[in-house]
Each structure stands twice: as C-alpha cells, then as structure tokens.
Amino acid sequence: MKRSAAGDREKEDKKRKLLQQLGDVPLEFLSPKDNGFHQLWSSKYAKLVLQEADRTPVELHRAVQKAFLTLLHHGCFFQDLVQLKGKDLLTPVSRILIGEPGCTYKYLNTRLFAVPWTEEDLGISYNAEDISNACKAFYALNKFLHLQTIRELSKLVRSKHLTDHPGDLQEQVSSHGDVGQEDASSFNVTLINYMNPQTMTYLKEEPYFGMGKMAVSWHHDENLVEGSTVAVYNCSYKDAMNTLEEEAEDASKWRVGLKIAWDIETPGLALPLNSGDSYFMLDNLNTTHQHCVLAGSLPRFSSTHRVAECSSGTFTYIQTRCEKALENLCALPDSDKTKLQSLEVEMLQQAEEIHNEVEFDWLRQFWFQGTRYSRCSDYWLLAMAKLEEHWRQMETMVSFKNTSLFIFWMWVLNGYRNTLCMPFTR
Q1: How would residue 120 be classed by pLDDT, with cut points 50, 70 and 90?
Q2: Which residues pair with 305 in a beta bridge?
Q3: Cα separation of 83 and 24, whole Å?
Q4: In this predicted model, what pLDDT tens digit does every residue of 294-307 receive, in sequence order?
Q5: Strand (E) positions, 239-324?
Q6: For strand 115-116 and strand 87-99, is the pairing parallel, antiparallel, or unpaired?
Q7: Are 117 and 137 in contact (CB under 8 A)?
Q8: 49: which residues sit within 8 A by CB, 6+ positions away?
Q9: What is the CA radius of gyration of the chain?
Q10: What are phi and psi of 304, to 5 degrees?
Q11: pLDDT tens readout for residues 369-406
Q12: Residue 334 to residue 198: CA distance in whole angstroms
C-alpha cells in the first residue's frame, strides 16, 4: 500500500470534518468495566482476539522477554525519521525490524531493513551471541503466533465472521482442520517497539473518544499483504528494577484502542493489556478498522508480527533486478573495458529505471538510517556492498547511453553514417 500526497490530504479532510462534526462532545467508547463491552466486542470487533499470558508457554515468555532486554542493553532500538503530512518527524516509539533474511518493511516512506532471524546455519554473523539468541527467540515466537493465528482464523470460518481472506483460506481450513496451513498468513517480519512514557515530555490526547494519552495515533498498518493478520505480543517493563512485570490497575495498563474507520455511530473499544498477553487483528480487520496504542504507566515492549508485502522489498528482488539490467553490459575480449550489447530504447530505459530504484529506494534509504542495524549484524552491510557494485556498473551503462545518444544526434545532424559503427567502450 503506497502513500500519496492526495491520500494524505483526503485523510486529513476526513479527520477535520469528523472533529468539526463532533464539536466538544466525545464519541462513546467501552472498556471492560462498562456494561455492553463484551456484546460490542463480539458484534462489531469479532476479528480482534485476545490471548491471555497463560496461553503462551512459560519458556517462550522467558526467552522473548530476555530477548527484549538484550536488544535494549545493546542499544538496538531506534527512533525512525518518517514523513507524515509532508513533514519529517521522529517517531516517539523506538523500533527495530527482525525477520526473514533479506526482508524489508516500508512505512511512512521509510524503509526498514530486517535483522535476520533463522534456525538454519546460513553463515549470518551477529555482533554478539546474545543478539543471535534474541533473533532466534523472536523466530520461535513468530512460529507460535502463526499457529495461534491459524487456530483463530479457523474459529472465524466456523462462526462465519471470516468473509474475504485471500488464498481461499476458508476452504483450506475447512478441508484440513485447525492447524497445518503453514503458507496461510505466514508472518515474515516483526516490528519490535519500545517506549518509556516516563521519559516522554508530551504525548497527544486521543482526539475522538477521550481515551487518554496515545503512544501511537490512529492508523492502519501499511505495506501488508491484503487481508493478512497482525499478531502482537505485549510486555511491560519496570525499568528501575530491571524486571518485567504486570501493572496492578487497569488505569495504569497499556491498552489497544479500536474503532471502525470513519464511523461515528459505533462505539470505540479500549482493551487493557497485561504483560505477556497477545492480541490478533485477524483477516481484514486492519483494513476495515483503525487502531491506536494508549500509553500505560510503565515502559513497554511489543513484538508486532506482520505479513509484509515484499514483492519488491527483498534483497533477492533488487539483486535480480540488477542482474536483469546488467545483462546488457558485456566485456570486450582481451580487455578490461565493457560495452552495451544493445542500444534499444526499451533496454536503455529499463537499465536507467533500475539504476534509479537501487539508488533512491535502497542505497540512500540504507545509508540514511539502515546502518544502525550494524549494531546487531553485518548482514545488510555485506548486501549493500553488492548493490553498490551493481550501481557502479549501471552508472557506467547510463554514461554509455548518454554517449550513444550524443553520437546518434551528431550523425543525424552531420550525416556521418559511419559514426554508428564506432565502438562504445569504457
């Protein structure tokens, strides 16, 4: 899903009109202490599922919570510089992306580069053994949340709430039971968040319902496979004692807020989260609804597992694109020089498009913010070195193209037909 200036303006117009319509009267929202909360949840927010902490194995809790603290200890959480409403802003939440080797995730015009997780020995080098173990812990959590997602989706099929999941998942689940659909809604990245509200001088108030202070404003998650689930593991952290623990009162807990997008008739929902709880935004809920994160009193980690739309967002993809462009570059025999094999306009344009894609969508994005991930692993430094070499070769191709066009027009103007026979070498 690509953001556009027109889309941002339309969203802001909708928000402004909605706030004008509301005036000083907030919309209604329900939390567990309110009558009708569970009825509202089951009728209007059925695709939001909460799994309490005791549903997750104790050893997995320990591994994941140790992994959070490991990343924090090594300084692996970073605020992102993003584009929002035409402005460059630092996110209040600090983040790191972990996922399948070579995966990236793009949001608010910023590309994040996943620190690789893997069970296999792929020769990936990490800066410390405990960072490697942390990545393995999130890989294990990812597999667990995937299986829980399949179970919850199968329940939706039986309850007839699941209507439009891609890949004929309804038929798959009906035919094969609750689990085993490894290719359905398989998360390829997790965006791990950390925020300490005690260090924040200012947090925005939730504008529609009066729900309280927001750590993350109302939004749909971007750049996901359409209709895919988002699974979130929540964990509170008591900084002073260096221990992870649960808040005592609902008023101090972190909450996830949900509302139907641009609907002022249906009450919103504010769901308190205990440390170790997981929640799932199943099927197309991320599209039909918006969600926000309401700040609690303690610092908080979350691991948000997603099916990132990676058709043009993996290292394999961009490397293949480079190889396609470089097919038109060949070495001259008995020489260190190269030449273009073809001067066809389409091939020249394709090479220039790929050259620009590598530079602006990958290299500049990485050297601007992506080098931070070298604190964890050298995976992307090595990958970018390969892309830089491809870029340099394509830079040569672009110069060949410009030289070729100059010679062609000189031939047209002066009538020197033999000019076309000149070798274009470098």
Answers
A1: confident
A2: 190, 231
A3: 30
A4: 999 999 999 999 99
A5: 243-244, 255-260, 268-272, 278-281, 289-294, 300-306
A6: parallel
A7: no
A8: 152, 279, 280, 282
A9: 25
A10: -110, 105
A11: 889 999 999 999 999 999 999 999 998 887 765 555 54
A12: 67
Query: pLDDT tens-digit profile of 355-367?
Result: 999 999 999 999 9
**107 alpha-carbon distance from chain centroid:** 6
HSE toward the beta carbon, residue 94, CA cutoff 13 A = 17
Per the document, the length of the chain is 426
Q: In the prediction, which pLDDT does 239 show?
A: 47
Model confidence pTM above 0.70: yes
Which amino acid, one-letter code, is at 15? Answer: K
Taking the alpha carbons at both ends of the chain, their separation in whole angstroms is: 41
Alpha helices by DSSP H, 23-163: 37-44, 58-73, 129-159
Nearest to 285 by CA among 261, 265, 256: 261
Distances in Å between the Cα of 382 and the Cα atoms of 126, 257, 311, 319, 372 are: 13, 41, 22, 13, 14
The CB density around residue 373, as the number of other CB atoms within 10 Å, is 23
Contacts of 243 (CB under 8 A, 6+ apart): 237
Residue type, 240: A
**Please, which residues bridge with residue 113 across strands?**
104
For the segment 8-31, the average pLDDT, to the nearest whole number, is 75
Cα separation, 92 vs 211, whole angstroms:
19
